[in-house]
Amino acid sequence: MSHEPLVLGIETSCDETGVGIVRGHTLLADSIATSVDLHAYYGGVVPELASRMHLEAMVPTIKDACTKAGIQLKDVDAIAVTGGPGLVGALLVGVAAAKALSMALDKPLYGVNHLAAHVAVDTLEHGALPEPSIAMLVSGGHSSLLHVPHLATTVESLGATMDDAAGEAFDKVARVLGLGFPGGPAIDRIAREGSFDAIDFPRGLTSKHDLENHRFDFSFSGLKTAVARWVEIQERAGNHISVPDVAASFQEAVVDVLTRKAIDACVTHNVETLIIGGGVAANSRLRHVVMERAAKHNITVRIPRPGLCTDNGAMVAALGSVMVSAGVEPSDPLFGADSSLPIENVRI
Ligand code: KG4
Ligand code: ZN
């Protein structure tokens, strides 16, 4: 008999209905139903549609995860669910399902922080997290730099985006370039055919003055506007626009700022491990540049495989498992979904 906890995790903060099952740091199942195709028609996630799709997908996704893991629901030691941050209607579906399971099975329930779960998922690939670590989360909803002294209980924010999230910038620039939604994978692909130094786009919050007040914060809204304006000027002048060059140059500006600030956070806090999570962590150029720069400072970079970087249930189960193993008390069963849950609340 293994003493490692068997944990089922539920994720519904955005447009992915994810159910993951882990034992300790071992991933047993990661089932996902996504409504992304439905949102693609509107060019972005429509919250009400996402909530309805979670409702439809929840029970089949739970069943699918149990089948894949070869377990029965009564076998689990604990249930974990994303309590926030995220779209409140979407979160509510997961929280209600998790409460129902917890009550029916008489198992402890952990309402967990989505951002901390993005960090925890790495334990499924690379084992226990060296503590302290620095984590950079870059997705469609968030861009944050975190100091993680103790993943089960204590996560501190070093900085975050002041406007658009990194993934949001990818999505908006992709729209300007006619590349569809979600934009990140499309830009990543087409950028490989372009030159990253073709156009010198601005690097937000990197001037000496900005670094004094916003050393670990990000801003991508100015970059997005700069790309749109550049395209508009070229079109008006009747010039040919190389979409691969624009995509590669834009991507380089994002990657340059993200990697510079992440490495700076590690050096400043004397931390040797950098974890990168969130959808944008799937970006091939980001992976390449961060490895190159980290090596110069003897920093170890841990990035989960792309399928675990985007939203999923396994990440929630992984954080639940870390909490159970650390002896963290379960959540009060009366907790509610919190759309703006601060990162300091690792568990609700
Ligand atoms: O973590 P995630 O699945 O959902 C949120 O919590 O937002 O991240 C989705 C975001 C989208 O903005 C998408 O365009 C971006 O991650 N993304 C990428 C790549 N794959 C997904 N951005 C850049 N390069 C990629 N390869
Ligand atoms: Zn996410």
Describe the structure.
With 348 residues, this protein is an alpha/beta fold. It is 45% helix and 18% strand. Strands 3-2-1-4-5 form a 5-stranded mixed sheet, with helices on both faces. The protein has a 5-stranded mixed sheet with strand order 8-7-6-9-10, with helices on both faces. It starts with 5 loop residues before the first strand and ends in a 23-residue tail after the last helix. Helix 6 (166-176) packs antiparallel against helix 10 and helix 7 (183-191) crosses helix 10. The radius of gyration is 20 Å and the shape is globular. It binds 5'-O-[(R)-(carboxyoxy)(hydroxy)phosphoryl]adenosine (KG4) and zinc ion (ZN). Residues 14, 139-141, 167, 170-171, 182-185, 188, 278-280, 282-283, 310-311 line the site of 5'-O-[(R)-(carboxyoxy)(hydroxy)phosphoryl]adenosine.
Reconstruct the topology from this structure:
Blueprint: E1 6-11, E2 16-23, E3 26-34, H1 36-40, H2 47-69, E4 78-84, H3 88-105, E5 109-113, H4 114-120, H5 123-126, E6 133-138, E7 143-150, E8 154-160, H6 166-176, H7 183-191, H8 208-214, H9 221-236, H10 243-268, E9 273-277, H11 284-296, E10 300-302, H12 306-309, H13 313-325
Parallel strand pairs: 1-4, 4-5, 6-9, 9-10
Antiparallel strand pairs: 1-2, 2-3, 6-7, 7-8
The chain binds 5'-O-[(R)-(carboxyoxy)(hydroxy)phosphoryl]adenosine and zinc ion (ZN).
